[in-house]
Amino acid sequence: METNQFERVAEHQWRIEPRGDMRVPGIVYASEQLLRDMDQKVHEQVCNVASLPGIVKASYAMPDAHWGYGFPIGGVAAFDAGEGGVVSAGGVGFDISCGVRTLHTGLQRAELEPVKPRLADLLADIIPAGVGSKGRLRLNGAQMDAMLSGGAQWAVEQGYGLAADLERIEERGCMAGADPSAVSDHAKKRQRAEMGTLGSGNHYLEVQHVTAVYDPGTARVFGIRVGDVVVSIHCGSRGLGHQIGTEFLKAMVTAAPEHGLTLPDRELACAPIDSALGRSYLAAMRAGINCALANRQILTHLARQAFEQLVSNADLTLLYDVSHNTCKLEEHVLDGEKRSLYVHRKGATRAFGPDHTDIPAALRAVGQPVLVGGTMGTASYILTGTRDAEARSFGSACHGAGRSMSRHQATRKWRGQSVVSELAERGILVRSPSLRGVAEEAPGAYKDVAAVVDASDQAGLARKVAKLEPMVCVKG
Predict the structure, then answer these.
(1) What is the predicted pLDDT for the residue at 128?
(2) CB of 338 within 8 A of CB of 114?
(3) ∠ at Cα 245 (242, 385), nearest 5°?
(4) Active site residue: 234, 324, 344, 399, which one?
(5) Residue 240 CB neighbour total at 10 angstroms
(6) What is the CATH number of domain 3-475?
(7) Residues 6+ apart with CB under 8 A from 319
(8) Is-contact 100 234, C-beta < 8 A?
(9) pLDDT score for 404
(10) CA angle 177-388-461, nearest 5°?
């Protein structure tokens, strides 16, 4: 993308002046190289989002931004219901509440190396992954509704994990305002056998080790040291979330004329927040958030079982769980006034700074953990939110590396078995039911996650705390 389409505001901040139907400016946070490497569609989509009714301050894109459905992936936008604001299913995405959960293990790398191959096999055996993967849990109608209402809290009540986990989960494990009756029977049917599964695409469970600490004080609060082994789980709401997105996008496109909405792109389908359709979507989307939180909680239970079988002194305690595909009602300061806003984050991680009341008390002094996933062949990172992010991006930062090529392009360039073999030579064991899926997710198909994280850090959106390198990766 050409930089002459932007005004450079700061080293890592680029502005698009409002023009045409844009109600607010567009802001992209990126280094010059990351901006140049973004596809032109990012510019177009940032501008399109800026034209939606009720949007406030700016339409944002994070350093890992790339083309998405309607909104760019890496897009952030906030809307005021009192100013005719809208909620957009495309602004949340199809994988509602996709997110990352990171757990301590209490182990050092040297302790785990002798059992690493056996652990990789056991995790792959215990944790279902891949397209259409089914779990061992089957939910009837009443159980499904209870899960959609209760999220991770429900999962803990069913014996999956510990009550102590809930304090370290966004929304303390249960999103308020969820209404299972707003979720279609078809969406529920798709999810009936998918609880406790990773799914496909870029989802994974990784065993990682800490190779660098950048902020010793914050790392100490987070309980992170060089050499530590951690487990990170990246997945979302599976078939249920996808079905909610599909159904409401169609309904929003159909209803747009009756709400007086003229869309620059039908993929930006939306509805007024205070309309019946808008309220119904929010209720269903919140149920989707609870589905994802419950899913990651069950996967945590399965991972603990695997470690318990092989490593007697392992102790998997939760550092944090945070989503990156949501719309949340939050309070933010605009022009010196506190206002309630519906903040869409699509491929963007919440990044609240120190002392924010939504952060667990034990972590509040240093800010919210921001968990940024890499690829199976590159590092992941732990960052912490900043007060600057609350002012600059509604408390948002990057969520991962961001794709640099399509899955189809990736399969033309790489073969899955070659990727698995090359990573094994580096000591990274990959377990996946689909070699095509491995090729689609080849590390070279993504941007440089280190550059993305550095740009987030230098733009003041989140501060680097630690670097994690993969040891074992279970892929869909």
Answers:
(1) 87
(2) no
(3) 90
(4) 399
(5) 30
(6) 3.90.1860.10
(7) 102, 103, 104, 168, 222, 223, 224, 230, 369, 382
(8) yes
(9) 87
(10) 80
CB-based contact 457:188 (threshold 8 Å) = no
99-133 tens-digit pLDDT: 999 999 999 999 999 999 999 999 999 998 878 78
Residue 23 structure tokens: 């109600």
Q: What is the pTM of this model?
A: 0.97
Q: Which two tokens stand for residue 96?
A: 């509602």
DSSP state of 146: H
Q: What is the mean pLDDT of each run of 10 residues along the chain (476 residues)?
A: 95 97 98 96 97 98 95 97 95 97 97 97 92 87 98 98 97 98 98 94 95 98 98 97 97 96 92 98 98 98 96 96 98 94 98 97 98 95 96 97 90 93 96 92 93 98 98 93
Q: What is the DSSP letter of 210?
A: E
In angstroms, the Cα distances linking 283 to 171, 229, 427 are 15, 38, 45
What pLDDT, in 10s, does the model give residues 34-55?
999 999 999 999 999 999 999 9
CA distances 417 to 159, 371, 412, Å, are 38, 29, 14
Taking the CA atoms of the chain, what radius of gyration do you get in angstroms?
21
399 is catalytic: yes
Q: What is the DSSP string of 439-462?
A: HHT-GGGB--HHHHHHHHHHTTSE
Q: What are phi and psi of 297, to 5 degrees?
A: -70, -40
Number of C-alpha atoms within 13 angstroms, CB side, residue 149?
A: 10
The residue type at 119: L
Residue 417: predicted pLDDT: 94
How far CA 212 is from CA of 17, 329, 364, in Å, comes to 39, 35, 23
Phi and psi of 130, rounded to 5°? 110, 170
Question: Could you give the CA distance from residue 356 to residue 364 in angstroms, rounded to a whole number?
Answer: 7
